[in-house]
Amino acid sequence: MEVVELRVRLHCKACEKAVRKALCKIRGVTCVEIDVVSSKITVLGYIDRKVVVKAVRKTGRRAEEWASECRREKPTILRRGFVCIIPGWGTFQTSK
């Protein structure tokens, strides 16, 4: 599963509705969460990031990747017994 977080400026309920409708039409989308106050859209599903950005841009809004503190250059080291269920968000390594 892929988690795509975007910064999209939404001015009104009509903007939010148009973007939500466009994102829900994408094959593989499981969940769309829109936070109008912080201008953040989170899309969850078996999707391609480029397809999501393209769908938002087709509605006339500018979409840019959300700068998250959770995304790091180095993989996260998980403690023994814990496994990350989201691909690419951590590696399983035992701690000594």
Question: Can you put this structure into words, describing what you see?
Answer:
- This is Heavy metal-associated isoprenylated plant protein 26.
- Keywords: Metal-binding.
- With 96 residues, the protein is α+β, with helices and mostly antiparallel strands.
- It has a domain at 2-65: Alpha-Beta Plaits (2-Layer Sandwich), CATH 3.30.70.
- Helices cover 23% and strands 28% of the residues.
- It has 2 helices and 6 strands.
- The protein has helices spanning 13-24, 49-58; strands at residues 2-8, 29-35, 40-45, 63-65, 77-78, 91-92.
- Strands 2-3-1-4 form a 4-stranded antiparallel β-sheet, covered by helices on one side. A two-stranded parallel sheet has the order 5-6.
- Strand 2 (29-35) and strand 3 form a beta hairpin.
- The longest helix has 12 residues, at 13-24.
- The chain is globular.
- The chain starts with a strand and ends with a strand.
- Mean pLDDT is 79; it is low at 72-76 and 90-96.
